[in-house]
């Protein structure tokens, strides 16, 4: 019989802070313009069901 035999005290169900920041709203005008420019220049490599894995420059 040690100290831990009596159970834990306090609130063990506290709200935890998420690791990812919360994004409220959408993209700003600058972000939209930048993404359009990058879409014209680069192609994102991704496999179905996975995150994007690489970037290729589009041939002009």
TrEMBL record:
Domain of life, per UniProt, equals: Bacteria
Locations of Basic and acidic residues compositional bias?
Answer: 28-49
What segment(s) does the record annotate as region Disordered?
A: 1-60
Q: What is this protein called?
A: YfhD family protein
Look up and give the organism this protein is from: Aneurinibacillus aneurinilyticus ATCC 12856
């Amino acid at each position: 019989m040690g100290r831990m035999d009596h159970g834990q005290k306090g609130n063990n169900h506290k709200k935890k802070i998420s690791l990812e920041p919360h994004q409220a709203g959408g993209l700003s005008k600058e972000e939209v313009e930048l993404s359009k420019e990058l879409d014209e220049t680069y192609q994102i490599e991704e496999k179905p069901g996975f995150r994007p894995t690489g970037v290729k420059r589009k041939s002009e």
